[in-house]
Design goal:
This protein is of the alpha+beta class. It has a single domain, classed as RelE-like (YaeB-like fold). It is 33% helix and 27% strand. It contains 2 helices and 5 strands. Strands 1-5-4-3-2 form a 5-stranded mixed beta sheet. β3 and β4 form a beta hairpin. The longest helix has 17 residues. It is globular, with a radius of gyration of 13 Å. The model has no long low-confidence stretch (mean pLDDT 91).
């Protein structure tokens, strides 16, 4: 099993920053957000095929994993060398992210 390098798009960086700020301002257990995101990143780095395909994306090959405790999806693409994190988006929103 090979761990791929992780890279964030500017969009994904902004999503993570915004969601983390909201989480820290509105939740008592602020460590939950960081733990959940870090766990998802470890999974997709090691097993990128574990996510489910997201065919609604205009970018081919987008997959996502559900972060249950923070109720969000982590959207990404991958190749044999790296995983590109494309978005972190609330699962309860009525539409998906712009990727």
């Amino acid at each position: 099993m090979k761990n791929r390098r992780l890279r964030f798009t500017a969009t994904a960086q902004e999503h993570v920053r915004r969601e983390k700020a909201w989480w820290w301002a509105n939740r008592d257990h602020t460590d939950v957000f960081t733990e959940e995101v870090e766990q998802a990143l470890r999974i997709v780095a090691a097993l990128p095929g574990a996510g489910t395909p997201y065919p609604q994306s205009p970018v081919p090959g987008v997959r996502r994993v559900y972060l249950r405790r923070v109720s969000a999806h982590l959207y990404y693409t991958f190749d044999e060398h790296e995983v590109i994190i494309r978005a972190l988006w609330g699962a309860r929103r009525e539409r998906g992210p712009r990727i």
